[in-house]
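Hey, quick one: can you model this chain's 3D structure?
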Amino acid sequence: MLLSRLMQDALAATPDKPALMFEDTVLSYRELHDAIERSARGLLSLGIGRGDRVAIFMRNRWEYVELYFACFRIGAIAVPLNHRFQTDEVVFAINHCTAKLLIADESLLPIVKDVPEQAASLTGMYVYGGDVAPDAPNRWSDVVAAASDSVAWPEVDDDDPAMILYTSGSTGKPKGVTHTHRSIGATAASRVTTQQLDADDISLAATAICHAGAAIGVTFPTLYAGGTVVILAESDPGLFLDALKTHRPTRTVLLPAQLLDAVVDPRAKSVDFGCFREVACGGDQMSSDLYDEFAKVTDLQLNQLYGLTECEAVSMNPPFGVVERGSFGLPRAGVEVRIVAAASTAEDTDGSQVPDAAPGETGEIWVRSDSVMTGYWDDPEHTAATFVGDWLRTGDLGSRDTDRYLHFQGRIKEIIIKGGSNIAPGEVEDVLEASPGVELCGVVGTPDPRLGSLVHAFVELKHGLADPPTEADLRAFAAERLAAYKVPDRWTFVTDLPRNHVGKIDRHALHLRAVELDAI
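Sure thing. Here's the predicted structure for all 520 residues.
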């Protein structure tokens, strides 16, 4: 599916229906289409064409969607950059993909003002948004206004790259996950089928639209179904709860910590969550507290999903079927998932010689689908290491129960090997977070000369407890629920766990902290 045609059915059937809502702005499908066409002509007027990279450095706003589809219209490649990036991170991404153009928010200009001097590939940097001063230099609106209405539209192919999304890995340089029109279109069509999306749906894009979840997972499928997308300016419990009152959304996808902040907010008691047909959570482990607190505001079952930038929303609990608490459900339409027992692939070119794990056993999660990325931009080594034939090795550990439902067990690179036994950090974290006094925890391995590694738990207790649990309390709690070798050997209590750009626990920071503590 060419992404420039993703909205064609809705545009033909309901041109005046709201497609996007952002703060006080409402755009119909006709108005969004016209804005996309204008920006596409603007890109062409600057010499941007098929295959050229356009970096977008903006906070959540409706114009982000316009620029995405303007790139798709002419076969250019959209490169959304995390709005939390600092200058060096922006420079790295632009140089890595040799972007020709950078379009940024005025509020983010202090971060990127010197980027053109450090990025030889850039031919221009422009500022976009309705709040840009009329006399500001390099306004995107001026480029659009000056562009000719008469253009020759480039030919675009389904297999042309459409987006490069830089991963938020905690070690090493980010990798550019490359998606095509085909892979993004396959995800949109699959989500419509799996979730039974339709034109009556109002989806709340509550996470950063520069990431795969809010863009490929929420916005694009909803527009494909002819629904309406409400974009939140930022992750904020107040904005989320206000949106429920004002827009009555039917769908949303949130990070676990984000949803927990919203449902425990005192204002949540006065908000009706009954508008939702589905609330999904992904991107991190979900604690028992989240399920319990969510149940206090709605009877709706919370849908846990699993995905990665390389393949958005691999698996989810069926929104209209059986939901298994603690499981990320079943593969969505058009996605195959294997739980592989052994990761040795030296003699295996297509994965057929690698056995699958038995039900209940932990193995690596492998994925095959048209939704999977084509590879990492300009990185054949990592691309080759990630694929076995057409199977994507996720680097994540999972298991499959007797009902075929999938469960997350941790990540291979984070696996702790203690005395020859493998320990999945997620399993230990799940147990500790089930303790009534624990808000959140992060578990990492720390070197040990005798056993190879020990288990180090960083624990964030619930605030305001009159009688907080001690190390001895938590050790006893864990010992009742885990094999002895899995019980943490070292404990550190923290006020707040470190997080990375997308709100996940920063395990690299925890590893560094563990090393510092070992040296004391």
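One thing worth noting: Residues 336 and 368 are 5 Å apart (CA to CA).
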